User: Fold this.
Amino acid sequence: MDWALLAETGINGSLIGLMYSLVAMGIVLIYKSSSVPNLAQGSMTMLGAYIVLAYSSRFGAPIWLAIVLATLSMFGIGIAIERIALRRLAGRPIIMILMMTLGLEILLRAGSLTIWGATGRPMPIGISDDPLFLGALLINRAYAAGAAVAIVIFGLFALFFRTRMGVVLRAISDDYTAAWSVGISVERGVALSWAMASVVATVAGVLWASVQGVDQSLAHLLLKGVTVAVLGGMDSLGGALLAGLLLGIVEGIAGSYLDPLLGGASRDLVDAAMLIVTIMLRPHGLFGRHDIERI
Amino acid sequence: MMTETSPKPTKSAVLSLNNIEVVYDHVSLAIKGVSLEVPDGGMVALLGANGAGKSTSLKAISGLLVAERGEVRRGDIQFLDHNLRSLSPQRRVELGIAHVLEGRRVFEHLTPDENLIAASAIRSRHDMIRNKDKVYTYFPRLYERRFSAAGYLSGGEQQMLAIGRALMTQPKLLMLDEPSLGLAPFLVAEIFQIISQINREEGLSVLLVEQNAIAALEIVSHGYLIESGRIVMHDTAQALKSNPDIQEFYLGGAQAKNFHDIKHYRRRKRWLT
Assistant:
C-alpha cells in the first residue's frame, strides 16, 4: 500500500469535507431555530455564487467588493424567503414546510437557468492552481483555503452564540412558546437564522465555484450538505464541522481505492450509505441533542 | 357571574377580564364568560380542577393562545389602560405581563444564567444586570447552579428559574400556572413564601393558578373558582377556606359523599350564578 498516497487523499479529502461543512452549517442554522430542514440550501449556495458574478461582470465591481455586496444581498434574500414563504406556514405540518423548501430549491435552480443560462463560468478569486507542498504531499490550494474559511466561520458562530442575541436564538430553538412568554420575537429570530444561512451559502458558493465554476450543478451540494448535517446531528454546528471532516476523508479514500472497481460512482455510494446508515442506527447523528433527561 | 358574597375590590384593578370566551380551532369552546379582576399590588388565585379552563384563561391574557390556534372570541381584557385583545404576545410582555408557564418550560440546553439573559431580550443591558442581581438574591440556589444546564436542575430549581426568568422582563403582573406541580410540600411552601415576598417588596400584582387550593389560599387575598370554563365562585381567601362546599370538594376537608352529589352541586351552582 502506498502510504503517501493514502495520506494525500486523506488530507485533501478532509479539506473538501470541511467545505461540505459550510453547506451543512447553513442547514443546521435554520434547523436549530425553527426545526425546518431546508432543502433549498444547495440552490441558495448556487444563487450566492451567481450574484457574486452578476456584481462583478455586469457592474464591473472588483471581486472582493462583489463578494461583500452579494453577501449583503443574500442576507436580505434570506429574510425575504422566511418572511414571504415560510412564516405563513408556521405551525403547519412539517411535510408542507418541507415541500415548500423543495419548491424553493426548484424555483431558484430554474430561475437561475432562465436568467444566467446553463453555461459554466469561472469564479476567479485569485487562488493559484499550483499545489501546496507538505513534505512530499501535494495539497490543493483552493481546498485548503475553503477549509480554513469553514473553520473561521465556525469560530465566528461559536462566538456569536455566546452573545446576547445568540443566546436568544438558542432559547428560541429550545422552546419557542417559552421564548414568546418572555417577550422574545420568535419570528425575527427565525428570520435572522435564514439570513445567516444565506450568508454562509454565499461563502460556500464562492469557494465551491472557485473549484468547479458557476453553474446549476452547485445546487447538488445540497446532497453533501444534508448528509453532513444528518451525520453531525442536524442541530449541532460543531457536529456539522466534524461530520464534514469525516465524510470528506471516507469519501476521498473510497474514491481513490474503490472507483476503479465501481466505475466512478463510489463517492456518491459512500455518501448514500453514510446517510442511510446514520438514519437507521443513530437518527440524532453523532452530536445531535438527545433531549436532556433529568437524573 | 359572582356569588352574592363577592366583595368589592378596594384598590383599582391592574387587570380585568370581562366576560371573555375562548375557542380553539374556531370550534371548541374552552372558556365561556370568564370575568375576574386582579387589584393593583394584590394577590389573587384562580382555582379549579384539571381542564376547568385555568391555563386557557392565563393564555388569553398573555396572548400565548396563538401558539395553540386558540382565540378570544368575545369579551374584553383590560390591563392598566390597554385593551389587550389585539396585541401580540411580545407587546403584552413589554406592557408588563409575565406568564410563568405550566410545567416550568425552562430553556433546558441553556444555563440558568443564559435563561435569564434570554429573558431580557426586551430590556437594556443595564436593566439585565440589575434584574439578574435581584433574581439571584431571591433565589440564591440559582446563583450556585448558574453555569450548569438548566435541564439538569431539580424540579424546584427549575420552578425558581421559571419565576426568575419572568421577573427579568420587569413585569407589573406576574401570572403563575401551577407552580406547585410535582413539587414536594416543603418546596411548595418555600416557593409560595418567595412569591408573596416578591409581591410585597416589588409591589407586583400576582395571579396564581392552582389545583393545590390549600397552599394557594394561604397566600392570596381573594380567590376565584372556575368550573367547566365558568367562574362559579368569588370570595376572600378567608371565606373560601371556611366555605363548606369548598372544603368538601377542593380542600378535602370533609368526607366526600359520592359522585352524584358532586354533580348535583355543580349543576345547582351553575343555576345560581
In short: The mean pLDDT of chain A is 92. Chain A has one domain: 12-118+164-281. Chain A touches chain B through 24 residues (CB under 8 Å). The beta strands of chain A are 132-134, 137-139.
